[in-house]
Amino acid sequence: MKKITAIGIKEEGKPFIITMKGVFLDSLNDLPSGKYKLTIEKYFKKSSPSQFGWLYACVYPLSLIALNDAGYEFVNLDEVDQFWKSLFANKEILNRETGEIMNIPKSKSEFVTVDQMTYCEQIRTYCAEYLGVSIPDPDTNWRELNNQ
Fold this sequence. Notes:
mainly alpha; two-stranded antiparallel ribbon; 5 helices
């Protein structure tokens, strides 16, 4: 069965609004007879292209230089990406047969905006505390600077 989803908005002092309510209700009405479980969870946007742009154009290159200055031998951003994900973006996988819990790097495509912000901040903090390198905040005016 295909999963039916809708996005709703709740603002302080206002009633809950379901976006595209008609389409959502039509999908519910098209379901075959039976009992269904409805679940509401907080919705977060996926990480934005701007967030990934800052990560790959600023955070990763500056951290690559800092890591190599500290004695690591990283050659490219893919290696740096794997390194940072192994430190700050793990998810636990359980082997049911042995009970072993393994940590594997989470895919950045799974990140929501808050995950991406936290991930970048952890890298920046590590670089500042352990590598002595300050990675700048993202420049909110970068588009204007490129048009000059």
